[in-house]
Design a protein that fits this description.
The complex is a heterodimer of chains A (254) and B (393). Chain A has 254 residues and is an alpha/beta fold. Helix content of chain A is 47%, strand content 15%. Chain A contains 12 helices and 9 strands. Chain A has a 9-stranded parallel sheet with strand order 5-4-3-2-1-9-8-7-6. In chain A, helix 8 links the parallel strand 6 and strand 7. The two termini of chain A are 30 Å apart. Chain B is an alpha/beta fold and 393 residues long. Chain B folds into 2 domains: 146 residues, Rossmann fold, CATH 3.40.50; 216 residues, Rossmann fold (3-Layer(aba) Sandwich). In chain B, the strands form 4 sheets. In chain B, strands 3-4-14-9-10-13 form a 6-stranded mixed sheet, with helices on both faces. In chain B, strand 5, helix 5 and strand 6 form a beta-alpha-beta unit. In chain B, helix 2 runs antiparallel to helix 4 and helix 5 runs parallel beside helix 7. Classes of the chains: A alpha/beta (254), B alpha/beta (393). At the A-B interface, helix 3, helix 5 and strand 6 of A face helix 8 and strand 11 of B.
């Protein structure tokens, strides 16, 4: 069974953390993942940096740009992760934009992911229909779960469709925004969380965008299986460096 | 084989809508409605009226006698430079502002490189009394001060794009991010035949007025609706899309797309996407784009700010791949020389983008009886400082 599916069966709310590979330092990738696991994080999204990250706000853009300046490439990331399964057990997801994957070769990319022990992919700009028609069989061949996003504007019909072709979890974008934009959830958002929870989808939902602290994590996981933190973690790395990851995670979970 | 868009939003293998789910409702709303809206008689009537009375169309098809004598062929210039705001860009912004109104949008966003599309967008927003926000790379803001001032006079808010390379592609990213953050009341007026479907097709249809007029103008002057050649420059490719549009399926008409070679194709400072680009995804479209082997989008260079886009519209990628259009690259020097040449021979100072198209006359030999239509996409006022610096005027 895929590690993501297994983890989703745990009887607890899940904390997933995103960071840009190669940030703050080019060689920090593996130690960040290891520290996140040791600190009690349930799942890690490893950001493959891209020059033009359309769906990301300033914090992730900056970390992505810096990672590229540091010399991060697809090949280097795969090299860094080569032995990751010797030390890390939690599910690992690569999140990135489609163009770098296309240049690497989608099949080769998927195969390398499987060899390394990557469990899933999140590709915001790979549309559901294109995935379904052209890439689904390749992803499945290499045992990868593709995670789709939904937003407050996604129609009920489309959510049902996305649910039908998903086999892990649904990434629920908390508000109409790029990453890192909002602080705290209002009534509109909690109503949306509730509306989706009431749809009884076959895939559990994990909420991302706008989760930055203990309070927003608790709010989100009241309605969903888990929550994803990206920008707030990257800000922490920028301000406090890589040695206090444990403290960051503790603050979220307590 | 067809050269126009298919019902799935692709030109051959290029096009589509590679967008994050956050943009899907906006783009889908437009996709479902744009053809219906454009086909409505009231839309056509208002569009045509504004093009006539506000833009000043039809733009003349001018037989350039001295230029023709010089190159021993028949050269016609399609005078898009005479449009209000000085270029073809306004054809599209007029169409899109009417589209935005019919979709019930209240707020307009746009990206701009040199500022021409930004000015054309600010203009139609002033005309319609709509809020206008233009994203422009921080570096471009510094080097295009007159256009920034024009946009401000027209009531637009110019927001600097501070991310990435701080030029056109980043301004486009910022506009897309704005659209993600404002999914209900905002329409994004893209300035070229780029972006996710249906933008390339919609913008091409609004610019198609260029070749529509060419047909009857040629009929009047030459007794035939088709030229032997249509020449147009390509950054994203909107003026070329408009000039080619009604001739796409008529292979008796040779299409020439002119790209900016910058300081030379292999100099590392170029914008010749057809030569240097590879298939990939940029701004929601599968097309040819300049990128590293690792799939990171690179920064192009041209002396002309309107041609330094790292991709081309998917229509042009398809025209290149199928060989339907001939692609010619023109260096900065060749373009500047051609621009000065037109000024002296015909009394027309062209935009530097357009100067690239004119330089084709120096590169390629046409027969004396050939009818060559060059799309004179814009006027050179905005480029005066560049011409001054280059020629030490």
């Amino acid at each position: 069974m895929n590690r993501i599916n297994k983890k989703l069966q745990d009887d607890k709310k899940l904390l997933s953390i995103y960071f840009s590979a190669g940030y703050p330092g080019i060689d920090d990738t593996v130690t960040i993942i290891q520290d996140l696991e040791k600190s009690g994080v349930d799942m890690v999204e490893i950001g493959l940096p891209f020059s033009d990250p359309l769906a990301d706000g300033p914090t992730i853009q900056k970390s992505s740009t810096q990672a590229l300046k540091n010399g991060m490439t697809t090949n280097l990331l795969f090299k860094q992760l080569e032995n990751i399964r010797k030390t890390v057990d939690i599910p690992l997801i690569i999140m990135g934009y489609f163009n770098p994957m296309l240049q690497y070769g989608v099949e080769a990319f998927c195969k390398t992911c499987q060899d390394i022990g990557i469990d899933g992919l999140i590709i915001p700009d790979l549309p559901v229909d294109v995935y379904n028609e052209q890439y689904k069989s390749t992803f499945e061949k290499y045992g990868l779960i593709n995670v789709f996003l939904i937003t407050p504007q996604t129609s009920v019909e489309r959510i049902r469709f996305i649910d039908s072709i998903s086999n892990g979890f649904i990434y629920m974008v908390s508000s109409a925004s790029v990453t890192g934009s909002s602080s705290g959830f209002g009534k509109e958002q909690t109503q949306y969380f509730k509306r989706i929870a009431d749809m009884n989808l076959k895939n559990p939902q994990i909420i991302g965008f706008g989760i930055s602290n203990n309070e927003t994590f608790a709010q989100a996981t009241q309605y969903a299986k888990g929550a994803i933190i990206g920008s707030a973690f990257i800000k922490h790395l920028t301000d406090k460096g890589v040695n206090t990851i444990n403290q960051f995670v503790k603050n979220i979970l307590n | 084989m067809g050269y126009n868009i298919n019902d799935k939003g692709y030109y051959g293998e290029f096009g589509g809508a590679y967008i994050p789910e956050m943009l899907y409702p906006n783009v889908e709303e437009l996709r479902q409605n744009y053809l219906k809206i454009m086909a409505a008689p009231s839309f056509k009537e208002e569009f045509d009226q504004l093009l006539k009375d506000y833009v000043g169309r039809p733009s003349p098809l001018y037989f350039a006698k001295r230029l023709s004598d010089r190159y021993n062929t028949k050269v016609y210039l399609k005078r898009e430079d005479l449009n209000h705001t000085g270029a073809h860009k306004v054809n599209n912004t007029i169409g899109q502002i009417l589209m935005a109104q019919r979709l019930g949008k209240k707020r307009i966003i746009a990206e701009t490189g040199a500022g021409q599309h930004g000015v054309a967008t600010a203009t139609v927003c002033a005309l319609m009394g709509m809020e206008c926000i233009v994203y422009m790379g921080e570096i471009d803001i510094a080097r295009q001060a007159p256009n920034v001032a024009r946009m401000k006079m027209l009531g637009a808010k110019v927001v600097p794009a501070l991310s990435g390379s701080r030029t056109l592609k980043d301004a486009t990213n910022e506009a897309i991010r704005d659209w993600i953050n404002n999914p209900i009341d905002t329409h994004y007026i893209i300035g070229s035949v780029v972006g996710p479907h249906p933008y390339p097709d919609m913008v091409a249809r609004f610019q198609a007025i260029i070749s529509e007029e060419m047909q009857w103008q040629l009929q009047e002057k030459e007794g035939r609706t088709t030229p032997d050649y249509v020449v147009a420059c390509v950054g994203g490719g909107s003026n070329a899309a408009g000039a080619f549009y009604h001739y796409l399926e008529n292979t008796n008409v040779n299409l020439i797309a002119v790209e900016a070679a910058g300081k030379g194709i292999h100099s590392g400072e170029s914008a010749a996407t057809s030569v240097l680009g590879k298939e990939g995804i940029i701004h929601g479209s599968k097309t040819l784009l300049m990128q590293t082997s690792d799939g990171q989008i690179t920064e192009p260079y041209s002396i002309s700010a309107g041609l330094d886009y790292p991709g081309v519209g998917p229509m042009h990628a398809h025209l290149y791949k199928t060989g339907r259009a001939e692609f010619i690259s023109i260096t900065d020097d060749e373009a500047m020389t051609a621009g000065l040449g037109l000024s002296k021979l015909e009394g027309i100072i062209p935009a530097i983008e357009t100067s690239h198209s004119l330089a084709v006359l120096d590169q390629k030999t046409f027969k004396p009886e050939d009818i060559v239509v060059i799309n004179l996409s814009g006027r050179g006022d905005k480029d005066l400082q560049n011409y001054i610096d280059y020629f030490k005027l």
